[in-house]
Amino acid sequence: MKLPKNALAGIALLATAALGLSACGSNATTAPNSSESAAAGDGITVYNAQHESLTKEWIDAFTKETGIKVTLRQGSDTEMSNQIVQEGAASPADVFLTENSPAMAQVENAGLFADVDKATIDQVPAEFRPSTGKWTGIAARSTVLVYDKNKISEDQLPTSMLDLAKPEWKGKWAASPSGADFQAIVSALLELKGEAATEEWLKGMKENFKAYKGNSTAMKAVNAGEVDAALIYHYYYYGDQAKTGENSKNVTPNYFKNQDPGAFVSVSGGGVLKSSKKAADAQAFLKFITGKAGQEILKTGTSFEYAIASEVDANEKLVPIKDLQAPTVDPAKLNSTKVTDLMTKAGLL
Questions:
Q1: What is the distance between the alpha carbons of residues 238 and 302, in angstroms, rounded to a whole number?
Q2: Which helix (H) or strand (E) holds 230?
Q3: What is the predicted pLDDT for the residue at 51?
Q4: CB atoms within 10 A of CB 45
Q5: How far apart are CA 268 and CA 302, in angstroms?
Q6: φ, ψ for residue 113 (rounded to 5)?
Q7: What value does the mean pLDDT take over residues 24-37?
Q8: Residue 15: count of CB within 10 angstroms of its CB
Q9: What pLDDT is stored for residue 238 in this prediction?
Q10: Reduced to 3 states, what is the DSSP secondary structure of residue 302?
Q11: Number of helices (H) and strands (E), helices first, in the chain?
Q12: What proportion of the chain, given as a percentage, has pLDDT over 90?
């Protein structure tokens, strides 16, 4: 049966409208971490392995100040760095932010970072950025041994992280070996003490420690009396204390200091991809988060990481960063591939 021409026109009009509604619905349900709008020329795309809440605060303030929109893709250090290396020059990322330096070094070693603008570099003290200038520090976190103050007295604490491999610490401490946080600590040990000493320590660790999935879980285990101590980063303790404190009420952080490997301060990094089509905007974002406004957001926020740039002091609840007595480690030299090889050989991964 043939339809009248005016009926056919009406059907076509309805179909066109339906397609329009479908397209609108598709845009409305696009995942928040989609980079479609940025790829189309509307702002920049950030691959983010930092705390999502912190980065969103940075983004909101940056967009308010500059009008530049930012699209976020969230993932872990290793996930994001591997993705960037795989994407290579075709990566839609303009900026990469991490929690730990080894992921930044991986992308740098693949030759995928542009030089950071000098104005940004000048905002960050040399000890908190790589010697190469291919990326920069944006925040920092300190290694600590959180311990059960009901089980261990101060005079029983190890004087060095290396002591945790000794027989007297068998079954008494915990860690999360599969996480990028812990692997960064081992990477610093490798850089400071060399491969032989690192292998020996990892061997002792395998004999002595209890494995947990995640630093928060390891701290909770200490708090619950399952284990005496755990090697983690400081901000897990301070973040819990700022909330209810229910997972840290029996816990105290111990700082090794004295340039010990256990006093390692891990630098969170930020870099601009060489392939970025919006390099000026990407550089502006990196300058903003290392600038005074960005570092003040870090200082007053809930991540409890250390502000390191633009002469902004850390959150007043934290041990002053100058008092940590951290060893000197060039973040560009931290080697995640070698560390995972050594940890796998030791049976930790």
A1: 9
A2: strand 229-233
A3: 95
A4: 27
A5: 16
A6: -95, 145
A7: 32
A8: 10
A9: 98
A10: coil
A11: 13, 9
A12: 87
